[in-house]
Amino acid sequence: MNDSLPPCPECSSEYTYQMGALLVCPECAHEWSPAAETDGQAHVIKDAVGNILSDGDTVTVIKDLKVKGSATAIKVGTKVRNIRLVDGVGDHDIDCKVDGFGPMQLKSSVVKKV
After folding, report:
1. At CA 110, angle to CA 66 and CA 51, rounded to 5?
2. What span, in angstroms and rounded, lies between the C-alpha atoms of 103 and 96?
3. How far apart are CA 73 and CA 70, in angstroms?
4. Is residue 34 helix, strand or coil?
5. DSSP assigned state of 20
6. Where are the beta strands (DSSP E) in the chain?
7. Any idea where the Protein YjdM N-terminal domain is (predicted)?
8. What one-character DSSP code corresponds to residue 42?
9. Sign of torsion, CA 2 26 56 69?
10. Are 40 and 48 in contact (CB under 8 A)?
11. What pLDDT digit, counting tens, does each position of 11-52 carry?
């Protein structure tokens, strides 16, 4: 038990631990951002045209994206369903699965909400 970490907001477990940028509850598997916990308000993530994004949204890629390790790129107009907003590496704030490419993180500045 770590006294400096807050309890889980879902089940109130005191056995939370930190994994990267997230806090994790081992009892209910809930993950959350410690920044959202301390701010009292959630960080608003907007797409390229200013629409507010939320978990579960469907977005469309607005420009071709090169993918490391792949000979092909994600093309303009590719739909990405069921996104999850995260506090990712750099400014990559969308966690998703892209058909034909698999799981990856995208920047909200290269997508548009459908």
Report:
1. 165
2. 6
3. 7
4. helix
5. T
6. 17-19, 22-24, 31-32, 59-61, 65-66, 73-74, 79-80, 84-85, 92-98, 102-107, 111-113
7. 4-33
8. P
9. positive
10. no
11. 888 888 888 888 898 988 888 877 655 444 556 889 999 999
